[in-house]
Sequence to fold (227 residues):
Amino acid sequence: MEKPMLELKNVTKYYPIRNGKRRVLHDISFTLRQGQRLGILGCNGAGKSTLIRIISGIELPTSGEITFKMSISWPLALQGAFVGGLTGLDNLRFVSRVYGISYKDALPFIEEFSGLGAYLREPIRTYSSGMRSRLAFAISMAVDFDCYMIDEVTAVGDDNFSKKCKRALLEDKNDRSLILVSHSPGVISEYCNCYSVLYLGMLSLFKSYDDAFYYYNDVSSRQNSMV
Fold:
């Protein structure tokens, strides 16, 4: 049986601007295998979120190929797919149907993990941003993906919930692959076992965290000197 794998070949992304087009990603290639947890360091505006959106299928690349031989999550804590007029429970039902899981089986986990209580049965439009993130993260953890996508790791809710999120990613899902983009080297060091830096739209892969860290500091200094 073929092992889960994700492969990017020469992925490039342009966006149209007033005077032509702007290149955000250039010729990005890498292969992610089962159990690899890839950290992508990048300064603000490096294209990290664009890369996550392309891999998760929210956007298409301008050119290049992506081969999916593993199931990929939506970016964790993504709130954009929720229907505001529906309750949290109704949104769970919808997501469960899309991904072929039983919402009844997932519900006890969602209730405990999100800590939303009675709000789970209230319309999403009444939720705060933090409550939406709690629900989105909980639903993400309830679906058994081969690879989880994370655009930064930000504190969602109180300290206890943040600890739940960390435990879910580092312990409960430790056999799964991960792609995490961040501007924080400490976060990358904590969550990942493969390391890269995105700079000027190009992705550099490194054999060790130290090599990635030194290169990231160098390009960050160069970028700051140009501001």
